[in-house]
Amino acid sequence: MSLALALGRRGQGRTWPNPAVGCVIVRDGRIVGRGWTQPGGRPHAEPQALAQAGAQARGATAYVTLEPCAHHGQTPPCSQALIDAGVARVVAAVTDSDPRVSGQGFDMLRAAGIEVTTGVMASEAAADLQGFFQKIEQGRPFLTLKLASTLDGRIATATGESQWITGPESRRCVHAMRATHDAVMVGAGTARADDPSLTVRDIGVSHQPVRVVVSRRLDVPLMGKLARTANDVPVWLLHGHDADANLVRTWQDLGAMLLPCAQQGGHLGPTAVLQALGSQGLTRVFCEGGGALAASLLAADVVDELVTFTAGIAIGAEGTPSVGALGVAALARAPRFDLVEQRRLGQDIMCIWRKPERMRA
Fold first, then answer.
1. pTM for the structure as a whole
2. Is there a catalytic annotation at residue 46?
3. What domains are there in the chain, each with its CATH number?
4. CA 270, CA 300: separation in Å to the nearest integer?
5. For 21, what's the count of Cα atoms within 13 Å in the CB-facing half-sphere?
6. What gap in Å lies between CA 270 and CA 158, rounded to an integer?
7. For 53-111, what is each residue's pLDDT tens digit?
8. Which residue, 231, 232, 248, 350, has most beta carbons within 10 Å?
9. What is the DSSP letter of 164?
Protein backbone atom coordinates (compact mmCIF):
# COMPACT_ATOMS: atom_id res chain seq x y z
CA MET A 1 0.00 0.00 0.00
CA SER A 2 2.89 2.33 0.66
CA LEU A 3 3.96 1.95 -2.97
CA ALA A 4 0.39 2.51 -4.16
CA LEU A 5 0.28 5.76 -2.18
CA ALA A 6 3.59 6.89 -3.69
CA LEU A 7 2.26 6.13 -7.17
CA GLY A 8 -0.95 8.04 -6.47
CA ARG A 9 1.03 11.13 -5.49
CA ARG A 10 2.53 11.20 -8.98
CA GLY A 11 -0.86 12.34 -10.22
CA GLN A 12 -1.37 15.16 -7.72
CA GLY A 13 -2.00 18.42 -9.52
CA ARG A 14 -2.80 16.69 -12.81
CA THR A 15 -5.94 14.57 -12.32
CA TRP A 16 -8.60 17.06 -11.19
CA PRO A 17 -11.55 16.85 -10.91
CA ASN A 18 -10.79 13.17 -10.32
CA PRO A 19 -8.76 11.87 -7.36
CA ALA A 20 -5.09 10.94 -7.74
CA VAL A 21 -5.17 7.19 -7.03
CA GLY A 22 -2.45 4.54 -7.03
CA CYS A 23 -2.78 0.79 -7.63
CA VAL A 24 -0.34 -2.11 -7.25
CA ILE A 25 -1.10 -5.71 -8.25
CA VAL A 26 0.79 -8.49 -6.50
CA ARG A 27 0.83 -12.19 -7.34
CA ASP A 28 2.82 -14.81 -5.46
CA GLY A 29 4.74 -12.11 -3.61
CA ARG A 30 5.80 -10.32 -6.78
CA ILE A 31 4.58 -7.01 -8.18
CA VAL A 32 3.09 -7.67 -11.62
CA GLY A 33 1.30 -4.38 -12.25
CA ARG A 34 1.49 -0.73 -11.21
CA GLY A 35 -0.64 2.22 -12.16
CA TRP A 36 -1.79 5.70 -11.18
CA THR A 37 -4.48 8.07 -12.39
CA GLN A 38 -3.37 9.72 -15.60
CA PRO A 39 -3.49 13.45 -16.48
CA GLY A 40 -7.03 14.74 -16.78
CA GLY A 41 -8.26 11.97 -14.50
CA ARG A 42 -8.33 9.12 -17.02
CA PRO A 43 -7.46 6.32 -17.40
CA HIS A 44 -7.89 5.43 -13.75
CA ALA A 45 -5.19 3.69 -11.74
CA GLU A 46 -6.73 0.19 -11.75
CA PRO A 47 -6.97 -0.26 -15.55
CA GLN A 48 -3.39 0.99 -15.86
CA ALA A 49 -2.15 -1.60 -13.39
CA LEU A 50 -4.31 -4.38 -14.86
CA ALA A 51 -3.02 -3.68 -18.36
CA GLN A 52 0.53 -4.04 -17.12
CA ALA A 53 -0.26 -7.24 -15.21
CA GLY A 54 -2.12 -8.89 -18.09
CA ALA A 55 -3.00 -12.53 -17.45
CA GLN A 56 -1.00 -12.48 -14.21
CA ALA A 57 -3.78 -10.45 -12.59
CA ARG A 58 -5.90 -13.60 -12.27
CA GLY A 59 -5.73 -14.79 -8.67
CA ALA A 60 -3.67 -11.75 -7.64
CA THR A 61 -4.16 -9.11 -4.94
CA ALA A 62 -4.81 -5.50 -5.93
CA TYR A 63 -3.73 -2.76 -3.52
CA VAL A 64 -5.57 0.49 -4.25
CA THR A 65 -5.57 3.77 -2.34
CA LEU A 66 -9.28 4.51 -2.90
CA GLU A 67 -12.36 2.36 -3.29
CA PRO A 68 -12.65 1.31 -6.96
CA CYS A 69 -15.42 3.20 -8.75
CA ALA A 70 -18.74 1.48 -9.36
CA HIS A 71 -20.48 3.82 -11.81
CA HIS A 72 -20.41 4.14 -15.58
CA GLY A 73 -18.94 7.49 -16.59
CA GLN A 74 -16.63 8.19 -19.50
CA THR A 75 -14.99 4.87 -18.63
CA PRO A 76 -16.41 1.55 -17.30
CA PRO A 77 -16.34 0.92 -13.53
CA CYS A 78 -12.95 -0.05 -12.12
CA SER A 79 -14.64 -2.58 -9.84
CA GLN A 80 -15.91 -4.39 -12.92
CA ALA A 81 -12.45 -4.27 -14.49
CA LEU A 82 -10.99 -5.96 -11.39
CA ILE A 83 -13.74 -8.59 -11.52
CA ASP A 84 -13.22 -9.27 -15.22
CA ALA A 85 -9.46 -9.61 -14.68
CA GLY A 86 -10.02 -12.37 -12.12
CA VAL A 87 -8.41 -10.60 -9.16
CA ALA A 88 -8.85 -12.68 -6.01
CA ARG A 89 -8.43 -9.98 -3.37
CA VAL A 90 -8.63 -6.19 -3.15
CA VAL A 91 -6.96 -4.24 -0.36
CA ALA A 92 -8.15 -0.62 -0.20
CA ALA A 93 -7.12 2.28 2.00
CA VAL A 94 -10.30 4.37 2.18
CA THR A 95 -13.92 4.39 1.06
CA ASP A 96 -14.93 6.83 -1.67
CA SER A 97 -17.32 9.51 -0.36
CA ASP A 98 -18.69 10.20 -3.86
CA PRO A 99 -22.35 9.09 -3.60
CA ARG A 100 -22.00 7.36 -6.97
CA VAL A 101 -19.51 4.98 -5.35
CA SER A 102 -19.51 5.13 -1.52
CA GLY A 103 -19.42 1.43 -0.68
CA GLN A 104 -20.95 0.25 -3.92
CA GLY A 105 -17.57 -0.58 -5.40
CA PHE A 106 -16.77 -2.85 -2.47
CA ASP A 107 -20.24 -4.41 -2.71
CA MET A 108 -19.67 -5.24 -6.39
CA LEU A 109 -16.36 -6.90 -5.58
CA ARG A 110 -17.75 -8.94 -2.70
CA ALA A 111 -20.77 -10.01 -4.76
CA ALA A 112 -18.33 -11.39 -7.34
CA GLY A 113 -16.58 -13.47 -4.67
CA ILE A 114 -13.55 -11.20 -4.29
CA GLU A 115 -12.12 -10.82 -0.80
CA VAL A 116 -12.08 -7.15 0.26
CA THR A 117 -9.93 -5.63 3.01
CA THR A 118 -10.26 -1.94 3.86
CA GLY A 119 -8.62 0.62 6.14
CA VAL A 120 -4.98 -0.19 5.32
CA MET A 121 -2.89 3.00 5.73
CA ALA A 122 -6.18 4.89 5.80
CA SER A 123 -4.87 8.06 7.47
CA GLU A 124 -2.09 8.46 4.90
CA ALA A 125 -4.51 7.95 2.00
CA ALA A 126 -7.06 10.32 3.55
CA ALA A 127 -4.41 13.05 3.76
CA ASP A 128 -3.43 12.55 0.12
CA LEU A 129 -7.06 12.54 -1.05
CA GLN A 130 -8.37 15.22 1.29
CA GLY A 131 -8.92 17.72 -1.51
CA PHE A 132 -11.06 15.31 -3.49
CA PHE A 133 -13.11 14.46 -0.42
CA GLN A 134 -13.58 18.13 0.46
CA LYS A 135 -14.74 18.94 -3.07
CA ILE A 136 -17.32 16.16 -2.87
CA GLU A 137 -18.48 16.82 0.69
CA GLN A 138 -17.99 20.59 1.12
CA GLY A 139 -17.78 21.87 -2.43
CA ARG A 140 -14.31 23.35 -1.93
CA PRO A 141 -10.72 22.28 -2.59
CA PHE A 142 -7.93 21.58 -0.11
CA LEU A 143 -6.08 24.83 0.56
CA THR A 144 -2.37 25.14 1.26
CA LEU A 145 -1.18 28.58 2.34
CA LYS A 146 2.51 29.31 1.75
CA LEU A 147 4.29 32.06 3.65
CA ALA A 148 7.93 32.94 2.93
CA SER A 149 9.25 35.54 5.34
CA THR A 150 12.07 36.93 7.44
CA LEU A 151 12.73 35.98 11.04
CA ASP A 152 10.41 38.79 12.08
CA GLY A 153 7.60 37.76 9.74
CA ARG A 154 8.14 40.30 6.94
CA ILE A 155 7.80 39.69 3.20
CA ALA A 156 9.19 43.00 1.89
CA THR A 157 11.03 46.09 3.00
CA ALA A 158 9.30 49.43 3.50
CA THR A 159 10.17 50.28 -0.10
CA GLY A 160 8.60 47.06 -1.39
CA GLU A 161 11.80 45.12 -2.11
CA SER A 162 11.14 41.40 -1.70
CA GLN A 163 13.35 39.43 -4.11
CA TRP A 164 14.82 37.42 -2.69
CA ILE A 165 14.22 36.91 1.02
CA THR A 166 14.50 33.13 0.93
CA GLY A 167 17.21 31.21 -0.88
CA PRO A 168 17.24 29.17 -4.10
CA GLU A 169 16.62 25.88 -2.29
CA SER A 170 13.37 27.20 -0.81
CA ARG A 171 12.27 28.63 -4.15
CA ARG A 172 12.92 25.30 -5.85
CA CYS A 173 10.83 23.57 -3.18
CA VAL A 174 8.00 26.03 -3.82
CA HIS A 175 8.04 25.16 -7.51
CA ALA A 176 7.78 21.46 -6.61
CA MET A 177 4.81 22.23 -4.37
CA ARG A 178 3.13 24.22 -7.13
CA ALA A 179 3.42 21.17 -9.37
CA THR A 180 1.45 19.00 -6.93
CA HIS A 181 -1.50 21.39 -6.78
CA ASP A 182 -4.22 22.02 -9.33
CA ALA A 183 -3.89 25.79 -9.03
CA VAL A 184 -1.64 28.54 -7.67
CA MET A 185 -3.52 31.49 -6.16
CA VAL A 186 -2.53 35.04 -5.21
CA GLY A 187 -4.29 38.26 -4.34
CA ALA A 188 -4.48 41.31 -6.59
CA GLY A 189 -1.91 43.15 -4.45
CA THR A 190 0.71 40.48 -5.11
CA ALA A 191 -0.16 40.42 -8.81
CA ARG A 192 0.41 44.19 -8.98
CA ALA A 193 3.53 44.39 -6.80
CA ASP A 194 5.42 41.35 -8.07
CA ASP A 195 4.06 40.76 -11.60
CA PRO A 196 4.45 37.01 -11.00
CA SER A 197 4.37 34.24 -13.59
CA LEU A 198 3.01 31.66 -11.08
CA THR A 199 4.37 28.86 -13.25
CA VAL A 200 6.41 25.78 -12.40
CA ARG A 201 9.98 26.26 -13.58
CA ASP A 202 13.44 24.67 -13.46
CA ILE A 203 12.44 21.27 -12.04
CA GLY A 204 11.77 19.35 -15.27
CA VAL A 205 7.97 19.48 -15.03
CA SER A 206 6.03 20.14 -18.24
CA HIS A 207 2.48 20.62 -16.95
CA GLN A 208 1.34 23.87 -15.36
CA PRO A 209 -1.24 24.55 -12.65
CA VAL A 210 -4.10 26.96 -13.21
CA ARG A 211 -3.12 30.50 -12.17
CA VAL A 212 -5.74 32.16 -9.98
CA VAL A 213 -5.93 35.81 -8.94
CA VAL A 214 -8.45 37.03 -6.37
CA SER A 215 -9.30 40.59 -7.36
CA ARG A 216 -12.62 42.18 -6.45
CA ARG A 217 -12.21 45.07 -8.91
CA LEU A 218 -10.07 43.26 -11.49
CA ASP A 219 -7.30 45.76 -10.85
CA VAL A 220 -4.62 43.44 -12.21
CA PRO A 221 -2.06 44.79 -14.74
CA LEU A 222 -3.28 44.26 -18.30
CA MET A 223 0.31 44.36 -19.55
CA GLY A 224 1.66 42.02 -16.86
CA LYS A 225 2.98 38.48 -17.28
CA LEU A 226 -0.36 36.88 -16.41
CA ALA A 227 -2.21 38.87 -19.05
CA ARG A 228 0.44 38.28 -21.70
CA THR A 229 0.42 34.51 -21.17
CA ALA A 230 -3.27 33.87 -20.45
CA ASN A 231 -3.66 32.01 -23.74
CA ASP A 232 -0.70 29.77 -22.96
CA VAL A 233 -1.32 28.82 -19.31
CA PRO A 234 -4.83 29.12 -17.81
CA VAL A 235 -5.58 32.29 -15.83
CA TRP A 236 -8.72 32.46 -13.70
CA LEU A 237 -9.81 35.75 -12.17
CA LEU A 238 -12.20 35.76 -9.23
CA HIS A 239 -13.93 39.10 -8.96
CA GLY A 240 -16.88 40.89 -7.42
CA HIS A 241 -20.25 41.22 -9.12
CA ASP A 242 -19.62 44.97 -9.33
CA ALA A 243 -16.40 44.64 -11.37
CA ASP A 244 -16.15 46.85 -14.44
CA ALA A 245 -17.86 45.07 -17.34
CA ASN A 246 -15.25 46.40 -19.77
CA LEU A 247 -12.46 44.84 -17.71
CA VAL A 248 -14.36 41.55 -17.61
CA ARG A 249 -14.59 41.51 -21.42
CA THR A 250 -10.98 42.59 -21.84
CA TRP A 251 -9.69 39.75 -19.68
CA GLN A 252 -11.95 37.27 -21.45
CA ASP A 253 -10.57 38.46 -24.79
CA LEU A 254 -7.06 37.87 -23.43
CA GLY A 255 -8.01 34.25 -22.74
CA ALA A 256 -8.73 34.35 -18.98
CA MET A 257 -11.73 32.75 -17.29
CA LEU A 258 -13.76 35.10 -15.10
CA LEU A 259 -15.53 33.81 -11.97
CA PRO A 260 -17.79 36.24 -10.08
CA CYS A 261 -17.93 35.73 -6.31
CA ALA A 262 -20.03 37.05 -3.45
CA GLN A 263 -18.55 39.83 -1.34
CA GLN A 264 -18.10 39.88 2.41
CA GLY A 265 -17.28 43.10 4.23
CA GLY A 266 -16.07 44.87 1.10
CA HIS A 267 -13.91 41.93 0.02
CA LEU A 268 -14.51 38.66 -1.76
CA GLY A 269 -15.64 36.07 0.77
CA PRO A 270 -12.98 33.34 1.25
CA THR A 271 -15.62 30.62 1.36
CA ALA A 272 -17.24 31.96 -1.82
CA VAL A 273 -13.83 32.02 -3.52
CA LEU A 274 -13.11 28.40 -2.65
CA GLN A 275 -16.63 27.29 -3.55
CA ALA A 276 -16.19 28.91 -6.97
CA LEU A 277 -12.93 27.04 -7.49
CA GLY A 278 -14.49 23.79 -6.31
CA SER A 279 -17.38 24.22 -8.74
CA GLN A 280 -14.81 24.20 -11.54
CA GLY A 281 -13.40 20.88 -10.32
CA LEU A 282 -10.28 22.00 -8.46
CA THR A 283 -9.25 19.75 -5.56
CA ARG A 284 -5.92 21.26 -4.42
CA VAL A 285 -5.05 24.98 -4.34
CA PHE A 286 -1.67 26.49 -3.38
CA CYS A 287 -2.02 30.07 -2.15
CA GLU A 288 1.07 32.31 -2.15
CA GLY A 289 -0.46 35.45 -0.59
CA GLY A 290 -0.19 38.32 -0.18
CA GLY A 291 -0.78 39.44 3.36
CA ALA A 292 -4.39 40.59 3.00
CA LEU A 293 -5.50 37.40 1.25
CA ALA A 294 -3.58 35.25 3.76
CA ALA A 295 -5.28 37.02 6.65
CA SER A 296 -8.75 36.60 5.16
CA LEU A 297 -8.20 32.87 4.60
CA LEU A 298 -6.86 32.35 8.12
CA ALA A 299 -9.67 34.37 9.66
CA ALA A 300 -12.25 32.32 7.74
CA ASP A 301 -10.65 29.08 9.00
CA VAL A 302 -10.30 27.61 5.50
CA VAL A 303 -6.53 26.98 5.54
CA ASP A 304 -5.99 23.22 5.62
CA GLU A 305 -2.20 23.29 5.50
CA LEU A 306 0.25 26.07 6.28
CA VAL A 307 3.77 25.94 4.80
CA THR A 308 6.27 28.48 6.10
CA PHE A 309 9.74 29.29 4.79
CA THR A 310 11.78 31.39 7.22
CA ALA A 311 15.02 33.11 6.22
CA GLY A 312 17.75 34.24 8.61
CA ILE A 313 17.21 37.92 8.00
CA ALA A 314 15.34 40.65 9.88
CA ILE A 315 13.71 43.72 8.30
CA GLY A 316 11.91 45.36 11.19
CA ALA A 317 8.45 46.70 11.93
CA GLU A 318 8.44 49.04 8.93
CA GLY A 319 8.53 46.02 6.58
CA THR A 320 5.42 44.43 5.06
CA PRO A 321 3.98 41.67 7.30
CA SER A 322 3.40 38.23 5.81
CA VAL A 323 -0.13 38.19 7.25
CA GLY A 324 -2.41 41.22 7.34
CA ALA A 325 -4.62 42.29 10.21
CA LEU A 326 -6.61 39.46 11.78
CA GLY A 327 -8.36 41.39 14.53
CA VAL A 328 -7.33 38.86 17.16
CA ALA A 329 -7.94 40.25 20.64
CA ALA A 330 -7.40 37.01 22.59
CA LEU A 331 -4.90 34.21 22.04
CA ALA A 332 -7.68 31.66 22.43
CA ARG A 333 -9.20 32.98 19.19
CA ALA A 334 -5.97 32.98 17.19
CA PRO A 335 -5.65 30.40 14.37
CA ARG A 336 -3.49 27.50 15.59
CA PHE A 337 -1.74 24.72 13.72
CA ASP A 338 0.25 21.66 14.73
CA LEU A 339 3.78 21.19 13.39
CA VAL A 340 3.97 18.02 11.29
CA GLU A 341 7.31 18.52 9.50
CA GLN A 342 10.40 20.69 9.77
CA ARG A 343 13.30 20.76 7.33
CA ARG A 344 16.37 22.86 6.58
CA LEU A 345 16.62 24.13 3.01
CA GLY A 346 19.94 25.87 2.45
CA GLN A 347 19.97 28.69 5.00
CA ASP A 348 16.17 28.63 5.43
CA ILE A 349 13.83 26.59 7.59
CA MET A 350 10.67 25.07 6.10
CA CYS A 351 7.81 24.04 8.41
CA ILE A 352 4.57 22.32 7.51
CA TRP A 353 1.62 22.88 9.85
CA ARG A 354 -1.80 21.25 9.91
CA LYS A 355 -4.97 21.12 11.95
CA PRO A 356 -5.40 17.52 13.16
CA GLU A 357 -9.17 17.67 13.05
CA ARG A 358 -9.00 18.22 9.30
CA MET A 359 -7.36 14.85 8.79
CA ARG A 360 -9.84 12.29 7.46
CA ALA A 361 -9.92 9.07 9.50
1. 0.92
2. yes
3. 1-130 (3.40.140.10), 139-359 (3.40.430.10)
4. 7
5. 31
6. 28
7. 999 999 999 999 999 998 776 678 999 999 999 999 999 999 998 888 888 999 999 99
8. 350
9. T
